[in-house]
Amino acid sequence: MKKIIKIILLLILTFSISMGKTIANEKIKIGLLIPLTGKNSEIGQSIIKSTRLAINKINNPSIEIIPKDTKSNPKSTLKAAKELAKLDIKIIIGPVFNENLTYLDELTGVTFLSLTNKNNNFSKNIINAGINATSQLKTIKKFLELNEIKKTIFLTPDVNYKNEIEKAILNSKIKILENYIYDTNPTKLTQQIEKITRYDIRKQNLEDEIFRLEKSNQKSKEKLIERLKKRDTLGGVKFDSIIIADFNESLKSVTTSLLYTDILPKKKYFITLNQWFDSSLLEEASAQPLYFPSINKSNYEDFSAEYFEKFNQYPNQLSFLSFDLVGLVYYLIIQNNSIVDEKIFTKKNLFKGKVGIFEIKNNKINHILNFYKVENGAFKKIF
Length: 383
Prior knowledge:
Blueprint: H1 2-18, E1 28-34, H2 41-58, E2 63-69, H3 74-86, E3 91-93, E4 111-114, E5 126-128, H4 133-146, E6 152-157, H5 162-172, E7 178-182, H6 186-196, H7 199-215, H8 221-228, E8 241-244, H9 248-260, E9 269-272, E10 290-294, H10 297-311, H11 317-335, E11 349-352, E12 357-361, E13 364-368, E14 370-375, E15 378-381
Helix pairs in contact: 2-11, 4-5, 6-9, 7-8
């Protein structure tokens, strides 16, 4: 552990020193594939603004960002990428959406840092730089091990990213008892949660015990019966923690169903995925404490404040990530003796950005994240 900390500190120091350097006298051209027109144009504009902030931080006139419009379309994305390649650009940040990666394997010699958080790369020249499920589960795994939590179940909605979750469970080597796939329809969801938590059996156990006491000659049975009648169920479940791979209202539906079946967060760990500090979670007192891996909250707030001061609007989450990717590319080019090629992503490297620590190796990026909990109406950092 001390060795890793030393490596990280060395990398941070190297990056800080390198920020003011000019790499030869050549322009460092980085492509940017984003939607600048159409329904997703606001996302693209926000990303451009965040890359401008990154360029200002680096303060090196050699670096240049060249944006192109993907129009949120795979074929338009390929056309724009070819235009960037003709400018001898070797590294491109983007595209934003996973479906726009489809044809990019045609461009050999160009590396794409996609903003998607999916792990299903279409080609070796595409690196998915989003905060993927594997990175999140590795952080959750660390929390489970630190707290010696042995019995964990997984709840995954039956939606398009369920296969991504299944891969992440394997990749992270997190130990779980079972991964339950549930229907997001509220009525069906409650029925499934009842089955998973053995709610009918536990409820019947309570009724049977009350009936037994009523028929018995046991001393102080009235007090025992009175105490039992304040409960909803009797008997335990086989798990100590629940990882819920869901978000927004659907996540709240799951926690509500768990509460209904008498599974309480004070007794069992409720854990979920990166929630980007959704403020509505603070209002759900009955579902607290709720735990989740995440980007660094302080850095996120600082970036948002700086972005707002500059542009009079708040950034989206992809802006936060793209800010770091500009710094990451610049740093790796320096580490590669100012040579811009695909090899810079094959060597093992650690880079500390605002999101957290980027772990780069063999054309893959994972994130070493922080871990938080929602409790008493506040987000609290655990590690």
